[in-house]
């Protein structure tokens, strides 16, 4: 068994995939104490979101910087060192061995946890074939998880449909973070390999990333609490 995270609030990461800091601040305000963990990706990050990340961290919230770094080793290491200085809890890199090694070097002794992205949840077998990969989605995920475990990466980002096999390959200590989580009745959007919050937790996920079903809801706090209720039900 992997170590539990006792508070369902800490299992839910709300994706602030929004076009401006003002829009993100509005959602954070409406969510209030119902959410303790936020993700900031490219869209908000490039619109001034790193300043918001600092404010959230100073306010006692956790922040996941989802920039999926992949570059020459020195550039990755230095970028990760900057994120460690920011006080982020999670940061993503693509699961290529050189990139993962550089990220682990860059974080040093900081508590920042490096998450390796295996295959994006918006990709299926046809997308991998188009990109020139001969292996299937499952084979590609398995290979990258094995390499990540050997390197000592802190966790894996994978589709919820891959969580069971990833947990078996990763072992009990690494974190599994799953985007592509959609409560029953939610719009699938551009995701292809999805699951409900209940199913994702039962499959072995530690943290669920949920964006549009919460931030686009008429009542974001109620939507967040509904996801947390599913998480609690899965844990029980």
UniProtKB/TrEMBL annotation:
Q: Which UniProt keywords apply?
A: Decarboxylase, Lyase, Pyrimidine biosynthesis
Q: What class of enzyme is it?
A: lyase
Q: Where does substrate bind?
A: 17, 39, 66-75, 121, 182, 191, 211-212
Q: Which GO terms describe its biological process?
A: 'de novo' pyrimidine nucleobase biosynthetic process; 'de novo' UMP biosynthetic process
Q: Does the keyword Ribonucleoprotein apply?
A: no
Residues annotated as catalytic: 66 (for ompdecase activity), 68 (for ompdecase activity), 68 (proton donor), 71 (for ompdecase activity)
| One term under GO cellular component | cytosol
Catalyses: orotidine 5'-phosphate + H(+) = UMP + CO2
EC number annotated for this UniProt entry: 4.1.1.23
> Which SMART domains does UniProt cross-reference here?
OMPdecase
Q: Which PROSITE patterns match?
A: OMPDECASE
Q: Which GO terms describe its molecular function?
A: orotidine-5'-phosphate decarboxylase activity
**Tagged with keyword ATP-binding:** no
Cite the record's note on assembly.
Homodimer.
Protein's job: Catalyzes the decarboxylation of orotidine 5'-monophosphate (OMP) to uridine 5'-monophosphate (UMP).
The name this protein carries in UniProt is: Orotidine 5'-phosphate decarboxylase
Q: What is the lineage of its organism?
A: Bacteria, Pseudomonadati, Pseudomonadota, Alphaproteobacteria, Hyphomicrobiales
**Which gene produces this protein?**
pyrF
